[in-house]
Design goal:
Shape of chain B: globular
Distance between the termini of chain B: 30 Å
Number of helices of chain A: 20
Largest sheet of chain B: 2 strands, antiparallel
Helix content of chain B: over 70%
Radius of gyration of chain A: 21 Å
Mean pLDDT of chain A: 88
Low-confidence stretches of chain B: 103-122, 341-363, 412-425
Shape of chain A: globular
Largest sheet of chain A: 2 strands, antiparallel
Structural class of chain A: mainly alpha
Helix content of chain A: over 70%
Chains: A mainly alpha (about 500), B mainly alpha (about 450), C mainly alpha (about 110)
Strand order of the largest sheet of chain A: 1-2
Oligomer: heterotrimer
Distance between the termini of chain A: 28 Å
Number of domains of chain A: 1
């Protein structure tokens, strides 16, 4: 363990310890619970900031613990892990504020916030995992701790959604266990390294490596909601809005996509993966997912379902960028990891605000909602425009780099996919915006909370901030420390070796 | 404290504690039990330290040398088992303290409100304190078993353990008498088969001492017959499929701390002995590889059968009882892999860590054990074992989540959670943390296990 | 035929009888008795083993004798526990048989 090894450990602990304490708190200690949550979130953000600053100056943090001979748990902060880590630490803080406001007076809050914190700890572990075994361990923990959040409401629909979630994630976990064990047997102890480490084994193991890649992508693709492994995600919408935000933007889906990024870049190496011939199938899979998700989103009237299918589609942009060879596509994939998170959490927070303030759950009920809840709707508009790819919102930057990357890689069909998808995005978001701003309300709201104003401050503040961030990272993309700038830093590492 | 003094202390503390708890009666039994647990944990740590530093520790009881006398030996495996038993035992003690302390309350772990049935009744409060002497006796028997280097002494400790375990099951009240009686009859039968085998070995080799036997062992019909008898007897005691049928009723009707002790520790003793016999003693026989293969096959059946049966149960304790059956199956597979190529020794280390009751989900020791098992199986090319372990882990996860979802669906929205005493939850949490620590302490534990290993 | 051989053969016969009773009987008392007969057979075989007529030593081997003594103590305790449990089960369930051996008609 290096001298600085305590920092990654502390990042994981900063949400783990509050989570464990919160489990033991009685329901009515809401002040203490909120304090613990926020203290943990701020501590995590501070630690991540410290690591960002130092990693930017080429210092690395590493904590290592031997579990069995040749089997280490490694937590390491490098450029790639910090990209994801910063996103999840920032959004955890905002989601915590939002959740405190959202769940006021609902039962089982200690349980909820306990698992919520554990979920974020698992995500931190995934972000900081320095080898495949560690990544897998935290990935499995994530399954374990998100399940109680999905079924939090305990209704038959929630339990059914939980069952479906397990039906997808548990077999995926078993497949991953096999793949990780097999790779351990094949290579011995190996850490993730820029440019990958599997190339020397290709001689007699080419088929094994292809199978290994397929198993890993399938296993991680379940959480990344790649078609046809996406079935659990739309059903999981029954969970409370903060959980949806967490699933879609901060933790679960992102963890799957991030794991695929790690496997492609730092286990196989993107150039080696291309020579193995596994990237084209992955790109096709991602393209199918992008189009399919958008088409399904078009057909949904329930707002959260529409957003869920939009996630299915949008997360595969990351996978698509990963599967295209070349630094520009990589940049597209990496910035989209951050940008999609910011935009999607804005949309889910807004949807939660509509449901909580006015009882509006369906697109068809949203006529005139912009006049009733202008701030929330403004934020929603920023998120939706970003998803379509309208400049200067964040989504434009990622789509631009993805398109340019596809052109540079000579994969012109991928540009076609991006264009079709953007068109479909516009088709399912613009009518919503039109209804919200330009149509008169048709009758009373389904379930008004009676205050006659926009959502309460605890719910409004996070959504405005995330909207602002979505706009900011787009407008200021060229500035130092922006996600785009950081992505440049990462690809220098990945491509300098090969 | 010297190593041999620590060895004797480890043995004496629980037994003396059992007597003290019995004499202390209803009022003082709890204090005696908790104090003994603390002392026992300390002694086990001292002994493990001595083994790690000075190699195998031996005591010739009464000064009589082998083969006439009985030698107590603590090698690495024994020290690791003693340590694990002490730690888990302490967790069980804390759990039992709070569990029985909240007198007469309904078992909070029963998920289904269905008919309680004759065996489901809570133990009568007046006899609950008897848990302490009986449990400490069982603990003492376990320690004696780990330390015995002599086949006959092992028989005595097995009997002692069996009788204590039966008494623990019987603590649940008159409704559990049938389950306890069935358990007693089978464990006696198992002991008899075992002692018959020991007798054959003695007739052929004139010694009961394991180390001497290993040197003198001559392959022959009588040795094979002995091995078969002893193995069958131990399979009954360990509840390996298809001889597991006594376990679910016995464990399912016992109070929660008792079923925890039974499934986490008592049945594992039989496995420990099986592992000792087939890795140390009979492993050198020509053609001996067949038996671990057979045991592994039984283990595979146990994993699948136990997993499926666990899913079909409505009561949490019955579910856990069947999951114990499945867990024991994993151990048999680990035994097979460990008996194969030397490189697969990780499988044995992993298997030894499998002492917890968890279904092998991270971040617990069970998960590490499962991972090591899969890795060893891949390495050995035993794809059937990979398939079985993965299928078994899916079944285990399925019933764990099944139980969890029931807890979510059934929990009433008011604040009843405050009524449940916090200590059982804390003890469960502590045990989980121990499992985490075990996962973390894998490396020192592995070093300990290599002290005095057979090959 | 030497005395030791006689003892050994008698022991084997007892083991066989006891094993049969322990497995086949349905009344728990019979099973317990069967186990005791089985145990006695084992002890007789041990006693037979102890006699040494060949080799240097002509005095009997003390180790099996010690084992028989220990074994008897164990067997007595186990039987006592079994009888106590049997009484308890009989009082509670009204039958001296295990649940799986109880027919509808017989007591």
């Amino acid at each position: 363990m290096t001298a600085q090894g305590w920092v990654p450990l502390a990042v994981v602990a900063s949400s783990l310890l509050p989570g464990l304490v919160i489990f033991l708190l009685p329901e009515d200690r809401r002040g203490l619970r909120a304090t613990l949550n926020l203290a943990g979130a701020f501590a995590k953000l501070g630690l991540v900031g410290l690591m960002l600053w130092n990693v930017g100056r080429f210092q690395e943090y590493e904590a290592r613990m031997t579990v069995l001979p040749g089997l280490d748990l490694v937590l390491r902060a490098d450029e790639l892990s910090l990209l994801f880590m910063t996103l999840s630490a920032l959004l955890w803080l905002l989601t915590t504020v939002y959740a405190i406001g959202y769940l006021e007076d609902s039962p089982h809050r200690s349980r909820f916030f306990g698992f919520f914190s554990l979920c974020v700890s698992a995500t931190a572990g995934i972000a900081l995992a320095g080898n495949l075994f560690t990544l897998f361990v935290f990935y499995e923990i994530l399954t374990l701790v998100t399940y109680p959040l999905v079924i939090h409401r305990g209704t038959p629909a929630a339990l059914a959604a939980g069952r479906t979630y397990l039906l997808y994630t548990l077999p995926a976990g078993a497949l991953l266990l096999l793949a990780v064990a097999a790779s351990q047997v094949l290579t011995g102890p190996q850490d993730f390294v820029g440019g990958g480490y599997l190339k020397p084994f290709v001689g007699e193991h080419a088929t094994t490596l292809v199978l290994l890649f397929a198993a890993l992508v399938t296993g991680f693709g379940v959480k990344a909601a790649l078609v046809p492994l996406h079935g659990w995600l739309p059903l999981a919408m029954v969970a409370p809005a903060p959980v949806s935000a967490l699933l879609h933007a901060v933790a679960v889906v992102k963890a799957g996509a991030f794991a695929i990024v790690r496997v492609v870049y730092e286990m196989f190496g993107v150039e080696f993966a291309a020579t193995l011939g596994v990237l084209t199938p992955l790109a096709v899979l991602a393209a199918v997912t992008i189009v399919y998700g958008s088409l399904r989103a078009l057909m949904q009237d329930e707002l959260k379902k529409r957003l869920a299918y939009s996630t299915v589609s949008q997360v595969s942009y990351i996978v698509l960028g990963t599967a295209l060879l070349g630094p520009v596509a990589t940049i597209g994939a990496l910035v989209h990891l951050v940008h999609q998170g910011l935009m999607k959490i804005t949309l889910f927070f807004s949807a939660g605000n509509y449901a909580e303030t006015l009882g509006v759950h369906h697109v068809s009920e949203m006529d005139g909602i912009g006049r009733r809840m202008p701030w929330t709707t403004a934020a929603f508009t920023v998120g939706a425009l970003g998803m379509i790819g309208v400049p200067p919102v964040a989504g434009f930057v990622s789509k631009f780099y993805l398109g340019a990357g596809a052109a540079l890689a000579g994969q012109w069909w991928a540009i076609g996919v991006l264009a079709v998808s953007s068109l479909l995005n516009a088709m399912y978001f613009l009518p919503v915006l039109h209804r919200a701003w330009f149509r008169p309300p048709n009758g009373p709201w389904p379930h008004e909370d009676g205050r006659g104003r926009d959502a309460k401050p605890m719910l409004l503040l996070p959504v405005l901030l995330t909207a602002l961030f979505s706009l900011g990272v787009g407008v200021l993309a060229a500035m130092p420390w922006s996600p785009l700038d950081w992505a440049y830093l990462i690809i220098r590492r990945e491509y300098s070796g090969g | 404290m010297t190593g041999s003094a620590a060895l004797v202390t480890v043995l004496v503390v629980p037994l003396a504690g059992a007597v003290a708890a019995l004499l202390a009666g209803r009022r003082g039994a709890v204090a005696a039990g908790l104090l003994t647990s603390a002392l026992g944990v300390a002694a086990a740590f001292v002994l493990a330290g001595a083994v790690l530093a000075g190699g195998m520790q031996r005591v010739a009881v009464g000064g009589w040398a082998v083969p006439l006398g009985i030698e107590l030996r603590a090698d690495g495996l024994a020290a690791a088992m003693l340590l694990m038993t002490a730690v888990i035992g302490a967790g069980i003690a804390v759990y039992a303290w709070r569990y029985f302390g909240a007198a007469g309350h309904h078992d909070p772990h029963d998920l289904a409100a269905g008919p309680p049935g004759p065996a489901g009744k809570a133990a009568p409060a007046s006899t609950q304190w008897l848990f302490w002497p009986v449990w400490l006796l069982a603990w003492g028997a376990l320690n004696a078993l780990y330390l015995s280097g002599d086949l006959f002494n092992l028989y005595v400790t097995l009997e002692l353990l069996g009788l204590a375990a039966v008494a623990l099951v019987a603590l649940a009240g008159a409704g559990a008498a049938a389950a306890a009686l069935r358990y007693l009859l089978l464990t006696l039968l198992g002991s008899m088969l075992y002692i018959l085998g020991v007798e054959l070995l003695y007739a052929a080799h004139q010694t009961m001492d394991l180390l001497q036997l290993r040197e003198r062992l001559q392959p022959g019909l009588s040795v094979w017959l002995a091995a078969a008898l002893m193995t069958t007897g131990l399979l009954v005691k360990t509840a390996i499929f298809p001889l597991h049928f006594w376990l679910p009723p016995a464990h399912g009707s016992a109070p929660a701390p008792v079923s925890a002790a039974l499934s986490a520790l008592v049945v594992k003793a039989g496995f420990y002995l099986l592992a000792r016999l087939w890795l140390d003693l009979f492993g050198a026989l020509p053609g001996a590889g067949v038996v671990p293969a057979l045991l592994g096959a039984l283990g595979a059946c146990a994993v699948l059968w136990g997993g499926v049966q666990a899913l079909r149960q409505t009561r949490l304790k019955a579910m856990i009882a069947y999951s114990t059956v499945a867990q024991l199956g994993y151990l048999m597979i680990a035994l097979l892999l460990a008996s194969g190529a030397g490189g697969a020794a990780a499988g044995a280390a992993g298997g030894a860590m499998h002492a917890g009751r968890d279904p092998g989900l991270p971040p617990t020791g069970g998960f590490v054990g499962k991972f090591a098992l899969v890795e060893a199986a891949v390495r050995a090319g035993a794809w059937w074992a990979v398939a079985v372990v993965l299928a078994g882990s899916l079944l285990a996860a399925a019933f764990l989540f099944h139980a969890l979802s029931r807890a979510f669906a059934d929990a009433p929205a008011d604040k009843t959670s405050a009524e449940v005493p916090a200590a059982p939850q804390l003890a469960a949490l502590a045990l989980a943390l121990v499992a985490v620590a075990l996962a973390a302490a894998g490396e020192p534990l592995r070093r300990l296990l290599t002290v005095g290993a057979a090959t | 035929m030497s005395l030791a051989l006689l003892y050994g053969l008698a022991g084997i016969a007892l083991v066989a009888m006891g094993l049969y009773a322990a497995l086949a009987a349905r009344h728990v008392l019979r099973r317990l008795l069967g186990l005791n007969v089985l145990g006695s057979g084992v002890f007789m075989m041990l006693v037979a083993l102890a006699s040494r007529t060949t080799g240097i030593a002509t005095r009997p081997d003390p180790v099996p004798h010690a084992m028989v003594l220990t074994g008897i103590v164990v067997a007595v305790s186990a039987t006592a526990l079994g009888l106590a449990l049997l009484r308890r089960m009989h009082a509670h369930d009204g039958s001296p048989r295990l649940p799986e051996d109880r027919d509808a008609g017989s007591p």
